[in-house]
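3.2 Worked example (two chains)
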Amino acid sequence: MPPTDSPAPSIAWLLYALLTVVCWGIYGILLHTGQTEMADKVNGRYMAFLYVGIAYVLVAVIAPMVVLKVNGGRLDFWNYPSNGLWWSLVAGTAGAIGAFGVLLAFGAAPNPKTAYIPVVMSIIFAGAPIVNALVSMVKHPPEGGMAAVKWPFWLGIALAAVGGALVTKFKPDAAPAVKKSAHATPPAPGHSR
């Protein structure tokens, strides 16, 4: 076999995509846990969202600035090209509104609320790829137009919608809350409370 100058195709893109799958896959349960652990039924979701924002500052502001500095990139972000700046700002705003929507959906879900974590996240993760695919095709039309889109693509869109609907309709019921015993365990001999 003759030598080739082109490097082997990298699967880094797939690994990063799978990292995102894992992170976003646990996002809902982590967010709900943070909300409930705030111990404030009225404002817990807003308190949790505040910390989501703090995490965004750490991960999406400070980390990219460090990476830009290490790679010799520009840190004068106020002078970035205006189209890129504004579209990126719109994207970040859409992401933040979406994260807030997750918390609002958790708060508005009927009781028991924990049973709705997979429902809310399944609706989001089934619906978002559909929206992404359709908006992407409008913004970047496929070669040959819509008629050139093969039927398996449309089947995938339908299956995503059906999957989200099935998870929503047949969600497992949450286990009943464990009631704390009215009888407190007495302290061990020699220990005082």
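3.2.1 Second chain
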Amino acid sequence: MSSTPQAFPIPIPFAHHLGLQFYGCTEDTAEVRVWLQPPHLNGWDVAHGGLLMTMLDISMALAARSGQMEGPGVATIELKTSFLRPAEGELRAIGHVLQRTVTMAFCEGRILNSAGDLCAHATATFKFLRAMPVNPHRVNPAQRTTPSSGDA
């Protein structure tokens, strides 16, 4: 992984909104980081579980797509998360592919704090998609694999 943040390989507006940073992909692994800010916290002043699940989901999805960022997108089919300790400070989400088939990727992810302590663990299943309908009248261009008649 990189020691400095990089541009996300695909646009993820929610990740940008949360201040998540992409630290790279290698074959079957991806890393996302965040330095916790007040909006990320729950009522006990530690990372909100929704933030951790989002970081895990994004890091595992990017790992599933590693080596094929220009190809099909992925959709999360199932995600199971275990919260092991309160997460504070700078957090690293590391997603890793356990197994890939033609249509699915099975992944695991970990959230580590700056001391390297495991704060959360997840497993997920992702389905590879050629295109993803956003609404009945439009296909998300980031997911389209062939140009439509309206594309230049």
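3.3 Remarks
The longest strand covers residues 118-129.
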